Amino acid sequence: MHQKTIDMAAAAARTLWPTQWTREDNKLFEKALITVPENSSNRWEEIAEQVPGKSAARVKDHYEDLVHDILEIESGQFELPNYPDDLDVNSGSRMSRHGDNEKQKKRKGKPWTEEEHK
């Protein structure tokens, strides 16, 4: 296969299958979000320059996807996943996400009891 054909196939694949965001990509993205002012006229380009391999369009799409996810979580339309390594901070035991959100909502703004401190 000729190099030009390979390059065109790789470009087509990137268009069809969006690139994955690694942990390192996300860390660079988060840092750039903090350092690039929101009112910058070319904000997405400036952020993309700080995240290798990501275009301004991909950076903006990633940001909009994250905002959408946050809004769904905050509105209660999305249940947080139950990861196997989630620990209940108070007891050291595994947490179940089912029902714990209600318990947390009721506790919000109330000081811990003596028993909860132990």
Derived structural class: mainly alpha
> What is the level-2 CATH architecture name of the largest domain?
Orthogonal Bundle
Give the ordered list of helices and strands. Answer: HHHHHH
Number of helices: 6
Q: Would you report the number of β strands? A: 0
Biggest sheet architecture: none
Helix content: 55-70%
Radius of gyration: 21 Å
State the CATH topology of the largest domain: Arc Repressor Mutant, subunit A
β-sheet strand percentage: under 5%
Topology at a glance:
Layout: H1 3-16, H2 23-35, H3 43-49, H4 56-75, H5 100-107, H6 114-117
Helix pairs in contact: 3-4
Tell me briefly what this model is.
56% of the residues lie in helices and 0% in strands.
Notes on the protein architecture:
By secondary structure, the protein is mainly α. The protein folds into two domains: 18-75, Arc Repressor Mutant, subunit A (Orthogonal Bundle); 80-118, no CATH class. Helices cover 56% and strands 0% of the residues. It is built from six helices and no strands. It has helices at residues 3-16, 23-35, 43-49, 56-75, 100-107, 114-117. α3 (43-49) crosses α4 (56-75). The longest helix has 20 residues, at 56-75. The termini are far apart. The relative contact order is 0.07. Mean pLDDT is 75; it is low at 13-17 and 95-99.
